């Protein structure tokens, strides 16, 4: 286990590049199960969650080779359709193999996945969609078993635009007989990247990025290996932009798709942050104290829940009172108590946090409870007076590729030490 020692008060300045998207890489790796041959995934971030998915694929019998930010996956010799409980508990997104294994082999057995404890993320939407396609699903003793002689196309309406359910159903439907329509589908950019990967392999999918996705099933023998580069990570890039703003810095974040970040950019502009946007970069120039704003998290293209904790750190130093309403995950205010330790004035009432901006934050002994909460506390510590000790940074390593090295190159003082 490691922790960060962070000395605050330094203005970040320079250029930083966003890594490939974690939330695009994970479903694409799972989608490699559908075809045989050597799939090459370029731009994959070297993160704990990605390593877990690689271990899952290897456990199933796939050949997985990593060189830098490129991952080779050959699923030709997959033998098992059952994953150990230990592997499943290491990451929430391990459940993404459900649709791919069921689509290719007609059966799968997994335990309930683990991951950050930020709220309930039930699997019922996954199950309802797969059952509509003809799968028989049983839940016993913490395990999920699914079987289908052959999945059939179906018209599926999701109760909520679940990202994971949309991805699982896309993969399962890719090899089903007939046409599947997913309505009220998740519209995140990562859906489009998964569609692009699957279509390169020979699938017939259209509509990703809208609320209706249509999948015309093909035979597995028609699929071919794919070479694909994942999109940039919009959440990592957004975190860097807030880091620049909270330290009054001047930072250009390269390797981004600005359109994917527009909900965040709009709120930062509303708060008075100076932003310049190019074709593949965004620059933030810190210029004095920011203004209070109100935020309500929503599924894409609304304000992303994954940027809520980072914005809370920024707004804790704003002029005036801000209100953040969290509508996606009910337990996503765990960072509030830690920000209070640093001098933030925050009160939680139900699904809303009321933030009265303060003049300064102070260094403290703090602890990350989950991935984005950890990022929030790093940002707060960068802006705080004196030093902070941040424990449980294993959460941060799940979603940020050596964050301290990137920030130290911009002038931060962050030291990773072993407990």
UniProtKB/TrEMBL annotation:
Claim: Cell division is one of the keywords in the record: yes
UniProt key word Cell cycle: yes
Classification via Pfam families: EPSP_synthase
Catalytic reactions of this protein: phosphoenolpyruvate + UDP-N-acetyl-alpha-D-glucosamine = UDP-N-acetyl-3-O-(1-carboxyvinyl)-alpha-D-glucosamine + phosphate
UniProt GO MF annotations: UDP-N-acetylglucosamine 1-carboxyvinyltransferase activity
Top-level taxon of the source organism: Bacteria
One BP annotation, GO: UDP-N-acetylgalactosamine biosynthetic process
Domain Enolpyruvate transferase: 8-403
Modified residues (2-(S-cysteinyl)pyruvic acid O-phosphothioketal): 116
Binding site for UDP-N-acetyl-alpha-D-glucosamine: 92, 306, 328
Listed pathway(s): Cell wall biogenesis; peptidoglycan biosynthesis
Keywords for this protein: Cell cycle, Cell division, Cell shape, Cell wall biogenesis/degradation, Cytoplasm, Peptidoglycan synthesis, Pyruvate, Transferase
Localization of this protein: Cytoplasm
Residues that coordinate or bind phosphoenolpyruvate: 22-23
Principal location: cytoplasm
Entry's Gene Ontology cellular component terms: cytoplasm
Residues of the active site: 116 (proton donor)
Enzyme nomenclature, EC number: 2.5.1.7
Enzyme class: transferase
Family: Belongs to the EPSP synthase family. MurA subfamily.
Protein function: Cell wall formation. Adds enolpyruvyl to UDP-N-acetylglucosamine.
Protein name: UDP-N-acetylglucosamine 1-carboxyvinyltransferase
Source organism (scientific name): Pelotomaculum propionicicum
């Amino acid at each position: 286990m490691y922790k960060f020692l962070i000395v605050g008060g330094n203005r970040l300045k320079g250029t930083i590049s966003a890594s490939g998207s974690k939330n695009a890489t994970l479903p694409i790796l799972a989608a490699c199960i559908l075809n045989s041959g050597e799939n090459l995934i370029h731009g994959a971030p070297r993160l704990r969650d990605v390593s877990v998915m690689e271990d899952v694929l290897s456990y199933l019998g796939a050949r997985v080779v990593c060189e830098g930010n490129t991952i080779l996956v050959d699923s030709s010799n997959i033998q098992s359709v059952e994953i150990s409980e230990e592997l499943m508990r290491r990451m929430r997104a391990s459940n993404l193999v459900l649709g791919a294994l069921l689509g290719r082999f007609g059966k799968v057995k997994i335990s309930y996945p683990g991951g950050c404890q930020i709220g309930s993320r039930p699997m019922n939407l996954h199950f309802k969609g797969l059952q509509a396609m003809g799968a028989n699903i049983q839940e016993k003793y913490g395990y999920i078993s699914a079987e289908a002689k052959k999945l059939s196309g179906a018209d599926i309406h999701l109760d909520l635009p679940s990202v994971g359910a949309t991805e699982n159903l896309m993969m399962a439907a890719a090899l089903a007989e007939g046409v599947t329509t997913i309505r009220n589908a998740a519209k995140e950019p990562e859906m489009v990247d998964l569609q692009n990967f699957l279509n390169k392999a020979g699938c017939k999918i259209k509509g990703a990025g809208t609320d209706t996705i249509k999948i015309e099933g093909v035979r597995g023998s028609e699929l071919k290996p794919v070479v694909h580069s994942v999109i940039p990570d919009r959440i990592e890039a957004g975190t860097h932009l807030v880091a620049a703003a909270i330290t009054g810095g001047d930072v250009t974040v390269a390797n981004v798709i600005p359109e994917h970040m527009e909900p965040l950019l709009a709120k930062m502009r509303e708060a008075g942050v100076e932003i310049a946007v190019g074709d593949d970069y965004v620059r933030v120039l810190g210029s004095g104290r920011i203004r209070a704003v109100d935020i309500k998290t929503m599924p894409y293209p609304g304000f992303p829940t994954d940027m809520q904790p980072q914005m809370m750190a920024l707004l804790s130093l704003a002029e005036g009172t801000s209100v953040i309403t969290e509508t996606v995950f009910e337990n996503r205010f765990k960072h509030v108590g830690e920000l209070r330790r640093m001098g933030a004035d925050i009160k939680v009432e139900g699904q809303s946090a009321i933030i009265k901006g303060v003049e300064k934050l102070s260094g403290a002994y703090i602890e990350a409870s989950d991935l984005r909460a950890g990022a929030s506390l790093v940002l707060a510590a960068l802006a705080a007076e004196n030093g902070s000790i941040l424990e449980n940074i294993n959460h941060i390593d799940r979603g940020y590729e050596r964050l301290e090295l990137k920030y130290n190159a911009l002038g931060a003082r962050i030291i990773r030490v072993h407990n």
